[in-house]
Amino acid sequence: MAANLTTLTEAARAVLATAEPARKAAAGRAAAAAWRSGEIAAIGRSVPPDRPARPDKPALRLPRDMPKRGAGGSAAGRIALLHAIAHIELNAIDLAWDIVARFANAEPPREFFDDWVRVADEEAKHFTLLSKRLADLGAAYGDLPAHDGLWEAAQATAHDLLARLAVVPLVLEARGLDVTPTMIARMKRFGDRETAAVLTAIYEDEIGHVAIGLRWFERECARRGVAPAPTWRALVAEHFKGAIKPPFNDDARAEAGMARAYYATAG
User: Fold this and answer.
1) How confident is the model over 121-153, as pLDDT tens digits?
2) Cα–Cα distance between 96 and 16 in angstroms, integer?
3) CA distances (Å), 79 to each of 129, 225, 250, in order?
4) Rounded to whole angstroms, how far apart are CA atoms 175 and 88?
5) CA dist., res. 95 & res. 172, Å (int)
6) pLDDT interval class at 2 (50, 70, 90)
7) 8, 143, 165, 177: which sits with the fewest CB atoms below 10 Å from its CB?
8) How far apart (Å, rounded) are the C-alpha atoms in residues 59 and 128?
9) How far apart are CA 50 and CA 81, in angstroms?
């Protein structure tokens, strides 16, 4: 860790200010290790930027302008799939560090920071795994266009911790639980065990991320004296663009602790 990064929120801001993806992932992993070891012990107060630094590539487009991906049976289709997921994971690194820095003023307990540093570290691990798999296939992150919808969700919820928890882990990451098993099965069917293994590792970690999001969402609901499930639905309707619709992976959501009472009537 850089010697001048004495607090966790300073380290978070430094990750957010790093544009080059591999360096961002490495900086995030180093910050997480420093927090776990006690090298960084103070939380501090360091306001994050409105937008994280981004590399020159990939070109960012509106979601509606993105080319449609195939099923992943061809090498090009597999690269497109991995690139799209790598883009999600790069954004997820920033989303986790942003929640650490942006909501430190709310003075959540120390376990809050432990949890989100863990999420940030695992998102960086995911991006690194995906980058390696892309390289195995002769490609790299930045080779294809990507969309900017994920950071729009961050901007829409920057004012309220409860809204951020409702949308990012409990909509965006929860959706990953719904769709990833099908992608894993498809990769196995195409004989791409290496990609299936990467996606499986990500999927297993993401169950824990949804569980972390749900735990802090429900704790914040309890602090405010509001009912979790209807509050989630109201916040999602207000702050998330798009519908919450099936199919849902009820088993994985249940493993994360997310009852059907949250989402069964959504969509």
Assistant:
1) 999 999 999 999 999 999 999 999 998 878 888
2) 10
3) 13, 46, 29
4) 12
5) 11
6) very low
7) 143
8) 20
9) 28
Q: 60 by DSSP, 3-state: which?
A: strand
Q: One-letter amino acid identity for 213?
A: G
Please give the DSSP secondary-structure letter assigned to residue 246: S
> Domains (ranges, CATH) in the chain?
71-263 (1.20.1260)
Residue 57 scores a pLDDT above 90: yes
Residue 48 to residues 100, 134, 252, Cα–Cα distance (Å): 9, 30, 32
Q: Which two tokens stand for residue 167?
A: 């949308």
pTM of full prediction above 0.85:
yes
Tokens 């998102």 belong to 123
Residue 229's identity, in one-letter code, is A
The string of pLDDT tens digits covering residues 145-168 is 998 878 888 999 999 999 999 999
Q: Which residues have a Cβ under 8 Å from the Cβ of 68 and sit 6 or more positions away?
A: none
Backbone angles phi, psi at 7, to 5 degrees: -125, 160
